[in-house]
Amino acid sequence: MRSDEGSAIWSSIPASFAVLSLFVVALVGVRIVYTGTFDHSAIVWNLALAWAPFGVAAAVSRRVDSGLSPKALAVSAALWLILLPNAPYTLTDLRYAGFTNRVPVLYDVVLLSAAAWTGLLLGFTSLFLMQAVAHRLRGPRAGWALVVCALTFSSFGIYLGRVQRWNSWDLFIRPTGLGVDVAYGLVDPRALLLTLLLTSFLLAGYLAVYALAMRPAT
Length: 218
Description:
Blueprint: H1 3-35, H2 42-63, H3 70-83, H4 105-138, H5 140-162, H6 170-173, H7 175-185, H8 189-214
């Protein structure tokens, strides 16, 4: 693939994610009008949060070669890691498929699947960008170590968000309570099994996306 072709592809990625996001928002809007309720409206907020790690990763990727200081890089990487679980978290909204009978179940399946797919793509792309940064700075082993650690952290973060009902910003406004539930989760077999299950799924999904991204154009 020529460099200009690669640049064109990467420049189109945010636009494609925006189209997917707008599709989800439109589905939610139609559902609200049709049912007269705000069921599933929270998915729009969850999807907005899924954009956050992608935005941070894109900023780091652009600036790392232009003199980003080690301190700024560390702060940015920590912020990205804190925000990353918000992207795959959209997958858990699939549990609401068939939640009501006000619309056909397949409508909600499409809506929730589109949101989950968009969130996963945003998360995987942000991870791809941060892996590339780690690869450039520390080598390929560091890049893949980042992948495994980030996906494990995200999976545990999904547990904290879905089961314990914590948010990313609670790390700053309610750190003590969050710390208690983190400590509890680290010794709870159900939390650890859920983390292992999610990590395995996310790693398998990322490897598939990574293989496609690295496949040379024909």
